[in-house]
Amino acid sequence: MTVGTVLITGGTGYIGSFTSLALLENDYNVVIVDNLYNSSKVALDRIELICGKRPVFYEADVTDEKALDDIFAEHPDIDSVIHFAALKAVGESSVIPLEYYRVNVGGSIALLRSMSKHDVTNIVFSSSATVYGDATRFENMIPIPEHCPIGPTNTYGRTKSMIEQVITDHVEAQRRNLKKADKPYEQWNGALLRYFNPCGAHPSGVMGEDPQGVPYNLLPLLGKVATGDMEKLKVFGTDYASRDGTAIRDYIHVLDLARGHLMALNYLREQKPGVKAWNLGSGRGSTVLEIIKAFSSVVGRDLPYEVVDRRPGDVLDLTANPALANKELQWKTELSMEDACADLWRWVSNNPQGYRQAPPAKLLEALKAEKA
């Protein structure tokens, strides 16, 4: 018996595909909408390989309200949305800011409008720790709690904080208007999941991150260096006030992160809290050089890097205080940064062409044996 049907925007992307897998493994039906701008339909095959179930898929753009209307009309059983679809590179966002506002904010508004028309009342939003900006500007805000003032330092972060506000205003207005009309209103809810640095791959080695262009995140870039696709890694600044001069980030295994979305969705459906924000992170900060060392250790050799200037908008420390999610969602990370490094290396070393190749027979055999 299924628990419910969920629409996942950006569901063939990295975090979206792992969240789709987590929901299918927990008896949800999943409908994915993705324009495949930075993802591959092959992710659907890998999801099915692992769990034996396949999401329904539509190739459509989240900014296309008419396409969303048609999908909701075709699936009247959808009662919740998990919203990932967005442009996501901090550096790129400062180069093409209008495109980031058009896709990220405009797409979210189109989605909420369509949800309203079709009475889809729960939304889990993939936000980001970048909404906090430089939390070191306040006393006692590292690790960062949800009550830390919002203050993004780059365009990408500003789009995320703007969408959080749009969702908050929309859900609160729906609840207020329905309550005033003496109608049921508690079905309208939103979860704002602020997460830190997702990383890792499926431990089977058949599913992972496969960016279509050059990746922007540290661990996938290290994977490219390790496989020889890139000569060396660029380290943006060694003049931070940290233990080794490089920026500090909170790395969270993508399997833990996907489970966090599942638990936030369940919380909305069961507790009906209105709009709530939760940090999803490990609470453990690692510097860039510590990550390079950890991944080099898994690979078995030192990976080359070059120190360059800081990027605009980068901040010293983005480490989560996940206490609220630990308590309210009964969620906490179960996998370490070292686990993420090992899983990522298994993925990139066995699948150097990502989803553009078939997974090695030995990995498929191991996966079948595990499921038998």
UniProtKB/TrEMBL annotation:
Residues 6-281 form the NAD-dependent epimerase/dehydratase domain. This is UDP-glucose 4-epimerase. One of its GO terms (biological process) is galactose metabolic process. The keyword Repressor does not apply. Pathway: Carbohydrate metabolism; galactose metabolism; Carbohydrate metabolism; hexose metabolism. Mutarotase converts alpha-aldose to the beta-anomer. It is active on D-glucose, L-arabinose, D-xylose, D-galactose, maltose and lactose. PANTHER family: UDP-GLUCOSE 4-EPIMERASE. InterPro entries: Epimerase_deHydtase (IPR001509), NAD(P)-bd_dom_sf (IPR036291), UDP_G4E (IPR005886). One of its GO terms (cellular component) is cytosol. In the N-terminal section; belongs to the NAD(P)-dependent epimerase/dehydratase family. It comes from Coniochaeta pulveracea. GO terms for molecular function: UDP-glucose 4-epimerase activity. It holds the Pfam family Epimerase. Keywords: Carbohydrate metabolism, Galactose metabolism, Isomerase, NAD. Its cofactor is NAD(+). Its EC number is 5.1.3.2. It is an enzyme of class 5 (isomerase). Gene3D superfamilies: NAD(P)-binding Rossmann-like Domain (3.40.50.720), UDP-galactose 4-epimerase, domain 1 (3.90.25.10). It catalyses: UDP-alpha-D-glucose = UDP-alpha-D-galactose.
